[in-house]
């Protein structure tokens, strides 16, 4: 509790500087340096102990950052970027590069998953149609089998698989949304580029699948 | 003016009007002051807010238009290509086809590729606009939100029949 006032004050001051400085966008790294010197200089009259550890101030920053530091405009920085989980904080260019690649592949995976689900759905529908085709011929009672009951449909393997894939899709899409919500330019570009690449490499499948079902009619 | 006019009156206005100070508003409010997406998009007048709402409205409408366009493009890709690639080309390859037909096949493949690339581009634009609109809504400004709703409605209403008919 005794540390609370010290870092409730620390994030506010750099943020005020951040907002008013117009050079923040392109000079994220530089501006961050400026913030360090400013934040260690400004409160030195109020909090002398903070001047002693300027190196620990970033850690203070991102601990307080979860509470109130939330950028509301786009920026390009690779310092102190929180990523979804409390342990994941980007602080170096290398980490940002890694996060970029990871987010890129996550977005690509999302696109692939979306199309794979669609593909599976069509396939199961087609197979159901094929199975049900010959059945109504011999008897009237077998109609029961062609139109499966709701319970059977729910318990069928394709439907369960679809449900599991749907869960994964929802989780991944929320993750991507939250990543975009960090307003970090690099991560946003990673999301968009991943989505584009994924669509490019997987959507031909979609076209082919649509084609198959069109022919089956 | 706000500071001199009494503490009780400006407080409810001032509190939501500065979500940029690190604290974001977590409920919808009416205000003509906000910061949207970029730090240069700083709105602080009714006229600016009206302009921003129009821009966001157009963005949301564009999203719908792109969505429908993409669907149409996919349909056209499917219609144009598989007849030439999946049926003809497979048969033609077995017969070691003539050069002119091969050239034709090349051109259809090229066209398919063009369709595919443009579809991908549209998809990227759609994803980006979708996220931008989401972030704009996240400013919790009611005017912006209404702009998004109206834009989406108009876009869907206009684009869907317009692009389906052709």
TrEMBL record, chain A:
<dbReference type="GO" id="GO:0005375">
    <property type="term" value="F:copper ion transmembrane transporter activity"/>
</dbReference>
<keyword id="KW-1015">Disulfide bond</keyword>
<keyword id="KW-0813">Transport</keyword>
<dbReference type="GO" id="GO:0015677">
    <property type="term" value="P:copper ion import"/>
</dbReference>
<dbReference type="InterPro" id="IPR007274">
    <property type="entry name" value="Cop_transporter"/>
</dbReference>
<dbReference type="GO" id="GO:0051649">
    <property type="term" value="P:establishment of localization in cell"/>
</dbReference>
<dbReference type="GO" id="GO:0031901">
    <property type="term" value="C:early endosome membrane"/>
</dbReference>
<dbReference type="GO" id="GO:0051259">
    <property type="term" value="P:protein complex oligomerization"/>
</dbReference>
<dbReference type="GO" id="GO:0036324">
    <property type="term" value="P:vascular endothelial growth factor receptor-2 signaling pathway"/>
</dbReference>
<keyword id="KW-0406">Ion transport</keyword>
<dbReference type="GO" id="GO:0055038">
    <property type="term" value="C:recycling endosome membrane"/>
</dbReference>
<keyword id="KW-0187">Copper transport</keyword>
<dbReference type="GO" id="GO:0042802">
    <property type="term" value="F:identical protein binding"/>
</dbReference>
<dbReference type="GO" id="GO:0005507">
    <property type="term" value="F:copper ion binding"/>
</dbReference>
<feature type="compositionally biased region" description="Basic and acidic residues">
    <location>
        <begin position="48"/>
        <end position="62"/>
    </location>
</feature>
<keyword id="KW-0597">Phosphoprotein</keyword>
<dbReference type="GO" id="GO:0015679">
    <property type="term" value="P:plasma membrane copper ion transport"/>
</dbReference>
<comment type="similarity">
    <text>Belongs to the copper transporter (Ctr) (TC 1.A.56) family. SLC31A subfamily.</text>
</comment>
<dbReference type="GO" id="GO:0014704">
    <property type="term" value="C:intercalated disc"/>
</dbReference>
<keyword id="KW-0186">Copper</keyword>
<keyword id="KW-0812">Transmembrane</keyword>
<dbReference type="GO" id="GO:0016324">
    <property type="term" value="C:apical plasma membrane"/>
</dbReference>
UniProtKB/TrEMBL annotation, chain B:
<dbReference type="InterPro" id="IPR007274">
    <property type="entry name" value="Cop_transporter"/>
</dbReference>
<keyword id="KW-0812">Transmembrane</keyword>
<dbReference type="GO" id="GO:0005765">
    <property type="term" value="C:lysosomal membrane"/>
</dbReference>
<keyword id="KW-1133">Transmembrane helix</keyword>
<keyword id="KW-0813">Transport</keyword>
<dbReference type="GO" id="GO:0005375">
    <property type="term" value="F:copper ion transmembrane transporter activity"/>
</dbReference>
<protein>
    <recommendedName>
        <fullName>Copper transport protein</fullName>
    </recommendedName>
</protein>
<feature type="transmembrane region" description="Helical">
    <location>
        <begin position="112"/>
        <end position="137"/>
    </location>
</feature>
<dbReference type="GO" id="GO:0031902">
    <property type="term" value="C:late endosome membrane"/>
</dbReference>
<comment type="similarity">
    <text>Belongs to the copper transporter (Ctr) (TC 1.A.56) family. SLC31A subfamily.</text>
</comment>
<keyword id="KW-0187">Copper transport</keyword>
<dbReference type="GO" id="GO:0015677">
    <property type="term" value="P:copper ion import"/>
</dbReference>
<keyword id="KW-0186">Copper</keyword>
<dbReference type="GO" id="GO:0005886">
    <property type="term" value="C:plasma membrane"/>
</dbReference>
<keyword id="KW-0472">Membrane</keyword>
<feature type="transmembrane region" description="Helical">
    <location>
        <begin position="47"/>
        <end position="66"/>
    </location>
</feature>
<dbReference type="Pfam" id="PF04145">
    <property type="entry name" value="Ctr"/>
</dbReference>
<keyword id="KW-0406">Ion transport</keyword>
<feature type="transmembrane region" description="Helical">
    <location>
        <begin position="143"/>
        <end position="163"/>
    </location>
</feature>
């Amino acid at each position: 509790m005794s540390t609370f006032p010290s870092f409730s004050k620390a994030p506010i001051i750099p943020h005020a500087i951040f907002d008013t400085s117009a050079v923040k966008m392109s000079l994220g790294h530089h501006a961050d340096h400026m913030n360090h010197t400013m934040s260690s200089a400004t409160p030195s009259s109020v909090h002398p102990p903070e001047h002693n550890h300027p190196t620990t101030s970033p850690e203070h920053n991102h601990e307080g950052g979860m509470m109130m530091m939330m950028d509301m405009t786009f920026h390009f920085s690779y310092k102190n970027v929180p990523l979804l989980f409390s342990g994941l904080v980007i602080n170096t260019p290398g980490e940002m590069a890694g996060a970029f690649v990871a987010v890129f592949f996550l977005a690509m995976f999302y696109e692939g998953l979306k199309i794979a689900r669609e593909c599976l759905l069509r396939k199961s529908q087609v197979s159901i149609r094929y199975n049900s085709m010959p059945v109504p011929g011999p008897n009237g009672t077998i109609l029961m089998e062609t139109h499966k009951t709701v319970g059977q449909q729910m318990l069928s393997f394709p439907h369960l698989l679809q449900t599991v894939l749907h869960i994964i899709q929802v989780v991944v899409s929320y993750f991507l949304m939250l990543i975009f919500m960090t307003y970090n330019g690099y991560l946003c570009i990673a999301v968009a580029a991943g989505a584009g690449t994924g669509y490019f490499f997987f959507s031909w499948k979609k076209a082919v699948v649509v084609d198959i079902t069109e022919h089956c009619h | 003016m706000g500071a001199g006019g009494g503490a009780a009156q400006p407080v409810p206005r001032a509190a939501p009007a500065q979500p940029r100070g690190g604290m974001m508003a977590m409920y919808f409010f009416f205000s003509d002051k906000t910061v949207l997406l970029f730090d240069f998009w700083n709105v602080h007048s009714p006229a600016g807010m009206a302009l921003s709402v129009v821009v966001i409205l157009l963005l949301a409408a564009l999203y719908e238009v792109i969505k429908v366009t993409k669907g149409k493009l996919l349909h056209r890709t499917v219609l144009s290509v598989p007849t030439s690639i999946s049926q003809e080309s497979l048969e033609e390859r077995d017969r070691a086809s003539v050069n002119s037909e091969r050239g034709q096949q090349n051109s259809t493949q090229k066209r398919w590729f063009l369709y595919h690339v443009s579809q991908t581009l549209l998809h990227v634009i759609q994803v980006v606009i979708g996220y931008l609109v989401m972030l704009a809504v996240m400013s919790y400004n009611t005017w912006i939100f209404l702009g998004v709703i109206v834009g989406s409605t108009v876009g869907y209403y206009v684009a869907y029949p317009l692009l389906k008919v052709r």
